[in-house]
TrEMBL record:
<keyword id="KW-1003">Cell membrane</keyword>
<protein>
    <submittedName>
        <fullName>Carbohydrate ABC transporter permease</fullName>
    </submittedName>
</protein>
<keyword id="KW-1133">Transmembrane helix</keyword>
<feature type="transmembrane region" description="Helical">
    <location>
        <begin position="231"/>
        <end position="256"/>
    </location>
</feature>
<dbReference type="InterPro" id="IPR035906">
    <property type="entry name" value="MetI-like_sf"/>
</dbReference>
<feature type="transmembrane region" description="Helical">
    <location>
        <begin position="73"/>
        <end position="94"/>
    </location>
</feature>
<feature type="domain" description="ABC transmembrane type-1">
    <location>
        <begin position="66"/>
        <end position="256"/>
    </location>
</feature>
<keyword id="KW-0472">Membrane</keyword>
<feature type="transmembrane region" description="Helical">
    <location>
        <begin position="101"/>
        <end position="123"/>
    </location>
</feature>
<comment type="similarity">
    <text>Belongs to the binding-protein-dependent transport system permease family.</text>
</comment>
<dbReference type="InterPro" id="IPR000515">
    <property type="entry name" value="MetI-like"/>
</dbReference>
<keyword id="KW-0812">Transmembrane</keyword>
<feature type="transmembrane region" description="Helical">
    <location>
        <begin position="12"/>
        <end position="32"/>
    </location>
</feature>
<keyword id="KW-0813">Transport</keyword>
<dbReference type="Pfam" id="PF00528">
    <property type="entry name" value="BPD_transp_1"/>
</dbReference>
Length: 271
């Protein structure tokens, strides 16, 4: 009976895997076809003759966009990990007046939709000269990581008090306890935040369209949108660009998968 149950589970999971992988396989297949054969009927998942010239054309167009996306993703990930881990440590392990109230106010800001303060924020950035620069795409996110701070606080609260006490006995400073003792214990939460932040920054189309007008500062999602016109879409080139944009996401997730899953499951264990 147990063998039947296990077999049925694997069959169901395999079917779901096929369903979810089919669009990805078609995307890669379409990226290797001539434009005239992309929408063939019935659809073909394996190209008979690989048309690698599509990738050559795409890589002639996107190097600057790709570099901008990589740079912004790196700034967002590194900045948010630093700020959120410090703020989470303070809210979880330090005792100061108004700590819990400040944390509740911080969480309360997350219920305000971004579209509500988009115009005031744009006006502020315009006055300080940040419009048509990349600062609006990473500075506000790094300085206000509400969700990341919440995850880090929950992660720090699961660490036994004895580790912190041992550090104090050894004469470690508050920063030393945070950096040498506490932070290494939160690798799962850091990985989860890093993956979430990378995905959000990498796929951001709205921000660059609002704040950036110079083509040399635009990002990869904007470059992909350029393959779509009002009356005509270059599907094969669009699929090439989409394949290129998906590869870093898959690589990041594969490297952080173990810690990522642990981070999601462990950060809600203690409130």
């Amino acid at each position: 009976m147990r063998l039947v149950s296990k077999t049925s589970q694997y069959v169901v999971m395999s079917l779901f895997a096929v369903v979810f992988l089919a669009p990805l396989v078609w995307m890669i297949s379409a990226s290797l076809r001539p434009e005239a054969k992309v929408l063939s009927v019935p659809p073909k998942f394996l190209p008979t003759d690989a048309h690698w010239d599509n990738y050559r054309q795409v890589f002639e167009l996107i190097p600057v966009f790709l570099w901008n996306s990589v740079k912004l993703a790196g700034l967002n990930v590194i900045g948010i990990l630093i700020v959120a881990s410090m703020a989470g440590f303070a809210f979880a392990r330090l005792k100061f007046a108004g700590r819990d109230i400040a944390f509740m106010v911080l969480l309360g800001t997350s219920i305000i939709p971004g579209i509500a303060y988009l115009i005031p924020q744009y006006i502020v950035f315009q006055h300080i000269g940040w419009v048509d620069t990349q600062y609006p795409l990473w500075v506000p996110k790094v300085l206000t990581p509400v969700f990341a701070t919440f995850l880090m606080r929950q992660s720090f609260m699961t660490i036994p008090q004895e580790l912190e006490d041992a550090g104090k006995i050894d004469g470690a400073s508050t920063f030393g306890i945070y950096w040498r003792i506490m932070l290494p214990q939160t690798k799962p939460a850091l990985a989860a935040i890093g993956v979430f932040t990378f995905l959000e920054s990498w796929n951001d189309l709205f921000g660059p369209l609002i704040y950036i007008t110079s083509e040399n500062l635009q990002t990869l999602p904007v470059a992909l949108a350029q393959f779509q016109g009002e009356y005509f879409t270059q599907i094969s080139l669009l699929m090439c660009g989409a394949t290129v944009s998906v590869v870093p996401v898959i690589v990041v997730f594969l490297f952080a998968q173990r810690y990522f899953i642990q981070g999601i499951t462990m950060t809600g264990m203690k409130g």
